[in-house]
């Protein structure tokens, strides 16, 4: 199944400024998350963010916060238990998911969304954990559960479908 921007929503999980320095390759993960959200905004794909106990972990990084249409403050690791389902447009059953930590909040949220009937694409280059082994195990588990593993670039080109897309040049500048 190909991703279509008209049926997708992006879920940005816990790109929090106090958490990111502890994430393996956190700067790269954050940069890819920002790139994904910018591309989504250019293509009118809604972007929903989450923040896990921001009183302790801080709010989302400023670039992520600016690009999210709504942000859910949560205490549950699985954002579905904290109100995320109320923010998701049901006419968009295909969710592009990225964030931290891959083996905790991102994993539990993606599995929760899948259990609710959503199709899940996990953006691996915009997903991180403190330990690389935890990230790899989470991605392996998600793949076994039927989630599609993709990159920011894969998402962008599938959404555009061709070089004739009116936003092609703008998005290409973000990717290169």
UniProtKB/TrEMBL annotation:
It holds the Pfam family Isochorismatase. It comes from the Bacteria. Gene3D superfamilies: Isochorismatase-like. InterPro entries: Isochorismatase-like_dom (IPR000868), Isochorismatase-like_sf (IPR036380), Isochorismatase_domain (IPR050993). Residues 9-153 form the Isochorismatase-like domain. SUPFAM superfamilies: Isochorismatase-like hydrolases (SSF52499). This is Isochorismatase.
């Amino acid at each position: 199944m190909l991703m279509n921007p008209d049926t997708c929503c992006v879920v940005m999980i816990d790109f929090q400024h106090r958490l990111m320095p502890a994430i393996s390759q956190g700067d790269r993960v954050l940069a890819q998350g920002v790139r994904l959200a910018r591309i989504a905004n250019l293509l009118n794909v809604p972007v929903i963010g989450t923040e896990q106990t921001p009183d302790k972990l801080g709010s989302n990084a400023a670039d992520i916060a600016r690009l999210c249409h709504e942000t859910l403050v949560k205490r549950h690791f699985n954002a579905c238990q904290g109100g995320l389902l109320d923010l998701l447009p049901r006419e968009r059953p295909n969710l592009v998911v990225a964030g931290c930590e891959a083996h905790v909040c991102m994993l539990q949220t993606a599995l929760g969304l899948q259990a609710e009937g959503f199709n899940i694409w996990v953006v691996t280059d915009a997903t991180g954990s403190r330990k690389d082994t935890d990230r790899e195990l989470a991605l392996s588990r998600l793949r076994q559960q039927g989630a599609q593993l993709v990159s920011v670039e894969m998402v962008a080109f599938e959404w555009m479908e061709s070089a004739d897309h009116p936003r092609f040049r703008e998005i290409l500048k973000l990717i290169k």
